[in-house]
Amino acid sequence: MKFSILVNEGPYTHEASDTAYQFAKAVLAKGHEIFRIFFYHDGVNNATRLTTPPQDDRNIVSRWSKLAQENNLDLVVCVAAAQRRGIVDEGEMKRNGKDATNLAPGFRISGLGQLIEAGIQSDRLVVFGD
Amino acid sequence: MTTKKFMMVNRKAPYGTIYAWEALEVVLIAAAFEQDVSLAFLDDGVYQLKKGHNTKAIETKAFEKTWGALEDYDITKLYVAQESLAERGLTADDLAVPVEVLSRAEIGKLMEEQDVILSF
Prior knowledge:
- The complex is a heterodimer of chains A (130) and B (120).
- Chain A is of the alpha/beta class and 130 residues long.
- Chain A contains five helices and five strands.
- Chain A has helices at residues 16-29, 60-71, 79-85, 90-95, 113-121, and strands spanning 2-7, 33-39, 75-78, 107-110, 124-128.
- Chain A is globular and about 45 Å long.
- Helix content of chain B is 29%, strand content 20%.
- Chain A binds chain B through residues 6, 8, 40-41, 80-81, 84, 111-113, 115-117, 119-120, 125, 127, 129, and chain B through 1-2, 4, 6, 18-19, 22, 25-26, 29-30, 32-33, 35, 115-120.
């Protein structure tokens, strides 16, 4: 079956992104396909490479990056939600006159149309949030 | 393009968190993709539709006008949970736009007909 996943909460404060990650791993382990994982609302904060948790804690951001790399996943961060919360890639830095980028490897910034497309293309769109 | 039935489920109050506002952005994009979009308002989400928002003091954008604009996007299916209205002392007359007031059970049946449900 073809799944897409919507992550609506940031890391650490809420367990939603942990649960989404575990769900994504379970989907892949069962041999299903993940069309896209879309990050919205505070979910965009899953995509900052500057996250530095204590060493004995999980690194939620690098965990997403690794999962994407190993499984060739499409991790998409909503551009409008990212702009509000300061998640920046090279293009956004130039476009908005900022002096830094912080988008983690394996993520890309794009529009909400990518979420709607995920809904159209997937058999199931599973939402994680509070 | 494939058309699917998208239902956006609004469960949170209009202010205090950004969910309602960013949900509206999803609604408009889904409409731009010519999907079959409906909105359900449950729990505190019914406050999103209430007449007479004044957000000047909290320095955020008010919703009310945007509901009137939904018709321009061919979004006319607005379902409101009767129990949620009643629990908050509201009726359909308190709302800024015409809606269909349904029981929670009836909205549940509509959910069964959807291809995609996004809850905010």
